[in-house]
Every structure is written in structure tokens, then in C-alpha cells.
Design goal:
Number of helices of chain A: 5
Radius of gyration of chain B: 48 Å
Distance between the termini of chain B: 65 Å
Number of strands of chain A: 0
Order of helices and strands of chain B: HHEEEEEHHHEHEEHEEHHEE
Distance between the termini of chain A: 66 Å
Mean pLDDT of chain B: 86
Strand content of chain B: 15-25%
Radius of gyration of chain A: 20 Å
Structural class of chain A: mainly alpha
Helix content of chain A: over 70%
Oligomer: heterodimer
Low-confidence stretches of chain B: none
Mean pLDDT of chain A: 79
Strand order of the largest sheet of chain B: 2-1-5-4-3
Order of helices and strands of chain A: HHHHH
Largest sheet of chain A: none
Largest sheet of chain B: 5 strands, antiparallel
Helix content of chain B: 55-70%
């Protein structure tokens, strides 16, 4: 029953619509750099603890773990925002 | 082409099964059970996935309003900065923003291009976006800004979709289990109903086949089926009694009327054969007519009893003054008593109204007085009295100074054609008290017989007829 396998194959592969869907770009190294720039712009406002957190984020992005790095930088920025 | 007989029988069986009360009750149970499960599932869905959806939409709406305010306050720069700030602190990484100019250039946000679903009319849409090459569901809200700019605010709806999938699977399994339970419950219900009704059905079948002694067996549960069975048994007992009564009446009619009819026939035959002259023949015929009138009166009495027992005259019930009826009866039987050297004493209040059949009540009083006059010796006293012993009750009492009735005869008095031994020598048909009892029952009352003077040599008979004045 080849048609059954063909049907299963079609069902298991991403559809064309899914492949052509818009892409989220907030997980790229460029965005990581943008977030690092935002944190740097805070200057002396950021505490030492937050600077450590942001540096860890930068390090992860540099090592290719972009999403983890972005998450750390976002947490640093969020806590800095709360501190304000 | 006609179906083979066995096939037609099979379809007929299925049709009968589908039409059976057991199946319909079971189907109703299953539908109600599944409806309850469906309502529960709906409420669960509304309270979880529905709430999450509404929360996502509320967050998007609030976000979009904030960005529109930024746009109105500082244009592209302010909106771009606001989007950047929001994305920078989006720890959950769920937010989606896209700001585009009139030419379709991306000005800010984290989406590489405008999604096709957001192009269609309506400000809200659901679409797929790619994250790390994987398509994920997203909820999107389009806002048109001035100068041809467009803003898209959205949220990654993966969590919501995961919850929906989990819920759908759980509810699907629950529904499958519920269907299984509903079918099993329906089958059990149908079986229980069939089992409980089988006894009544078998009993009815046996009675229809002629075995009138059968009764519905009752369980110890005393439930609705037992109540139905008990009602059926009571009905069957009553039918049995009526059948015995009818048989007794038939026997009595045959026995009691055979003699006068035979006597009339013999008298006519003798007169025909031996009458010396026309006068003798005429005398014999007159006597025979009187005999036949007596037979006719018996039938008339039987018909009146049947009429009273059937309650056919209840529609003609009306309010009347009982004292007027008593006076009429006293006038007739007072004169008769006087002729026989008896005294009729009466006692009743000035007014005593009731609702009922006036003629029937008069007939009942007349029958009681007739018996009293018949059995009271010369010089004796007959008492006719009436009162209202309780609210809604009327009591008529007739007492005589006759020989009275033995307790065993009192128990049988009122049966059609029953006559106690001392009365057999006197004229009568044995239907008088039967009619009084029937009239009492017709008026929601009863007839009570007892000694008028307990302990006396001739105790007499007191007949107390109690009637409901409201019928």
C-alpha cells in the first residue's frame, strides 16, 4: 500500500505554508550584540551583579549559545529596569 | 424482491427492540450522561484554554495601545524605541513586534516580514511563525498607524497550543471512556428494567391465559415497581371479588327467580286446563300478573344497585334538604306502621342539607323503614332519626323492635339475595340492604348494623347509614 506511506510522509513533513512562515529574528547574534549595547548604555546604573549576568550572556553568545546568552542579557536588563 | 422470512423477523426484532421502553430509557440515560460529560468538558475548556487565550489577547491589546500612544507621542522613533525596550526585557521570549512603513520596509521588531494572515481583513489573526527553523503558532494583532505605517503586535502561542493539545487528548479519551460507560450503563439499565417488568408481564400473560389466581411477586425493595405490582394485585383481587360476586348473583337470580316463574307457569297451565269459568281464569291471570310484577321489581332493584355501584348517577348529584326526604319517607311508612299497630318516632334537626342523589337516598331510607315495619311486632316502636355527627357527615338511623340479626348474619347482610333464616317466611327479595349499601358507597359513606337494644330478649336492629354531605 504505497499510497498509505505517501500519505504518512506528506502528513509528517512541514507544509509549504509552515516553511514560508515569517521568521523571528530576535535569536540572532546581531540581536545579542544589540542587547549588549543596550546594557552598556546603562553605564554605572547597573550593579556589579547585573554586570556579571550580562557578561555571562555575552560569553554565551560568543560561544554560539545565542538563545541562552540573549536570555541572560534580557534578565540583566529587566532587573536593571526594576532597579530604576 | 421479498425478504426471506427469517430476515424479516430479524428486522422486526430490531425494530421492536428500538421501540421498547427499556431501550428508550437507556438511550435517554446515555444521552443525558454524555450531555453532562460534554458540559463538563466545555466548562473545563472555557476555564483553561479559553482563559489562556483571553489572557494572551488582553496582553496583546494592552501592548498595542501602549505602542500607539508612543507613536502618537514621538512618531517612528518613539515607537521603534518602545518596541526595542519591550523586546529587550521579554525574558519569556514570547513577544512578537513588527513596525513597517508605507513602502513595506521593516522599521522595528523581531519578525523578518509581514505575515500573510495579517493581510486579510480583520485586525486579529492566528498564523505560524518560524523560531529556530521550527514553525510555531502565533496570535497576531494588526494596527494601522497614520502615514501608511503598520504595526503588528503578537505573542508566541506555543504554550496555549500545547495546553489545547493536552486538553483535547484528555477530553477525547475521557469522552471515549464516557461513551463506554454510557453504553454499559444504558445496557444495565435496560436489563434491570426488563428484569423488573418481567414478573408483571408474566403475571398479566398468565391471567390473560385464564389463570386468575396468579399475582405479581413483590420484592423487598418496596420501590415503584413493587408499588405497581401491589396496585396490579389489588386490582386483580378486586376483579376476583367482583367475579365471585357476579357468579353468586347469577346463581341467586337463577335460584330465586326459578320458583316464582315456575309457579306462574303452573298457575296459568292449571287455569287453562281446569278453570270452570271465565272468572276463575281471570283470577288466575291476575295472580300471575302480580307474581310477574314481583319478578320485575327484583330486576328493577338489581338494576338500581348496579347503577349505584357503578357511580353512574354521580353526575346528577345536587344539593337537597335531607329533612324533606325524611319527612316524605316518614309520611308513607308512618301510615303503614299505624295500619299494623306500630308507632313511628322521628327525630331530626330543622335543617340538614347534603349533596347527593335525592331519589337514591329516599330509596335507601324507604328500604330500611320497610324492613323495620316488616320485623317489628304489633304495638312495637320504630325510630327514625338523623343528625350531623361531624363536619361533612350525615347520619340516618332506623331502629326497630324485631328479632334483630345474629352476628354471622350481620356480616353477610347486604349481599345480594341474602336473607337471614327468620325472614325467609316473610315477603322480600334479599336486595333491600344491598341497595342501601350501594347508596352508602355512592355517597362516600357506609352502612352499620347492630343491636338496637343490646342484651334485650328481642334486641331489634339498628341500621346506621352514614353519608358524606359533600359527596
Amino acid at each position: 500500500m504505497p499510497w498509505v506511506f505517501a500519505l504518512l510522509l506528506v502528513a509528517s513533513t512541514p507544509t509549504f505554508a509552515q516553511q514560508s512562515a515569517p521568521r523571528l529574528i530576535s535569536d540572532s547574534p546581531e540581536y545579542c550584540a544589540e542587547l549588549a549595547g543596550r546594557f552598556d548604555a546603562l553605564g554605572a546604573e547597573a550593579s556589579a551583579h547585573l554586570r556579571v549576568l550580562a557578561n555571562e550572556g555575552r560569553q554565551l553568545c560568543a560561544e554560539g549559545q545565542t538563545r541562552s546568552g540573549i536570555a541572560k542579557l534580557r534578565r540583566a536588563l529587566k532587573e536593571a529596569q526594576r532597579g530604576e | 424482491m421479498a425478504a426471506p422470512p427469517e430476515e424479516a423477523g430479524g428486522w422486526r426484532d430490531i425494530g421492536a427492540y428500538l421501540k421498547s421502553a427499556g431501550f428508550r430509557f437507556a438511550a435517554l440515560f446515555a444521552v443525558l450522561f454524555l450531555a453532562a460529560i460534554a458540559s463538563f468538558a466545555l466548562m473545563l475548556w472555557w476555564g483553561t484554554a479559553g482563559t489562556l487565550s483571553r489572557q494572551i489577547d488582553d496582553a496583546i491589546r494592552a501592548d498595542a495601545i501602549g505602542l500607539q500612544e508612543a507613536w502618537r507621542g514621538g512618531g517612528v522613533a518613539a515607537a521603534t524605541e518602545a518596541i526595542g525596550e519591550r523586546l529587550a526585557v521579554d525574558i519569556d521570549d514570547h513577544a512578537i513586534y513588527l513596525l513597517m512603513d508605507e513602502a513595506g520596509n521593516r522599521l522595528a521588531g523581531n519578525l523578518d516580514r509581514w505575515p500573510s494572515a495579517a493581510e486579510i481583513p480583520g485586525s486579529w489573526s492566528s498564523d505560524m511563525v518560524r523560531r529556530d527553523g521550527v514553525a510555531v503558532p502565533a496570535r497576531l494583532h494588526r494596527v494601522l498607524l497614520d502615514q501608511g505605517h503598520r504595526l503588528l503586535v503578537g505573542r508566541d502561542a506555543t504554550d496555549r497550543e500545547n495546553l489545547r493539545t493536552l486538553l483535547s487528548e484528555a477530553l477525547l479519551w475521557s469522552f471515549a471512556v464516557a461513551v463506554a460507560f454510557a453504553l454499559a450503563g444504558a445496557a444495565a439499565l435496560r436489563r434491570v428494567l426488563a428484569d423488573r417488568l418481567r414478573a408483571a408481564s408474566l403475571t398479566a400473560g398468565a391471567i390473560a391465559a385464564g389463570d386468575l389466581s396468579r399475582r405479581v411477586p413483590l420484592s423487598t425493595q418496596r420501590d415503584e415497581f413493587d408499588q405497581l405490582g401491589a396496585s396490579m394485585n389489588a386490582m386483580l383481587d378486586r376483579i376476583d371479588q367482583l367475579m365471585i360476586g357476579i357468579k353468586g348473583v347469577s346463581d341467586s337470580i337463577a335460584h330465586d327467580l326459578r320458583t316464582p316463574i315456575a309457579r306462574a307457569r303452573m298457575r296459568l297451565e292449571n287455569a287453562l286446563l281446569t278453570a270452570p269459568d271465565e272468572e276463575s281464569l281471570r283470577a288466575a291471570m291476575e295472580t300471575t300478573v302480580a307474581d310477574l310484577d314481583g319478578i320485575s321489581r327484583v330486576f328493577q332493584a338489581l338494576l338500581r344497585i348496579a347503577e349505584a355501584e357503578a357511580g353512574a348517577r354521580r353526575a346528577a348529584f345536587a344539593r337537597f334538604d335531607l329533612t324533606a326526604v325524611l319527612t316524605d319517607a316518614a309520611d308513607v311508612y308512618g301510615a303503614l306502621a299505624e295500619e299494623r299497630g306500630q308507632l313511628l318516632e322521628t327525630n331530626w334537626p330543622e335543617k340538614l342539607t347534603m349533596v347527593g342523589d335525592r331519589d337514591m337516598v329516599l330509596q335507601a331510607i324507604a328500604n330500611l323503614l320497610d324492613n323495620a315495619v316488616k320485623f317489628t311486632p304489633e304495638g312495637g316502636t320504630i325510630r327514625l332519626s338523623a343528625s350531623a355527627p361531624a363536619r361533612g357527615k350525615r347520619q340516618i338511623s332506623v331502629s326497630d323492635e324485631g328479632p334483630g340479626l345474629a352476628p354471622i348474619d350481620i356480616a353477610r347482610a347486604g349481599e345480594r339475595f341474602f336473607r337471614a333464616d327468620p325472614s325467609r317466611a316473610l315477603p322480600g327479595s334479599g336486595l333491600g340492604l344491598s341497595l342501601v349499601k350501594a347508596v352508602a358507597a355512592l355517597h362516600g359513606g357506609e352502612l352499620h348494623l347492630g343491636d338496637a337494644r343490646p342484651g334485650a330478649e328481642r334486641p331489634g336492629l339498628e341500621a346506621r347509614l352514614t353519608l358524606s354531605s359533600r359527596a
